[in-house]
Model the fold of this input.
Amino acid sequence: MSVESDTPRVPIVDYLQLEEVPHLLTNQCSSCGARFFDRRNACGACG
Done:
């Protein structure tokens, strides 16, 4: 059974994309290539 709703889906975090296929977005450090969610002022891997 499926339930359809007219209420729009709103993600609770910016990096969650609720498109046809929901997915998470990551950022990548330009120095070491480490990936992380959300915005960072400094990389946790290379500083």
Remarks:
- Residues 1 and 7 are 18 Å apart (CA to CA).
- The mean pLDDT is 87.
- Residues 11-38 form one domain.
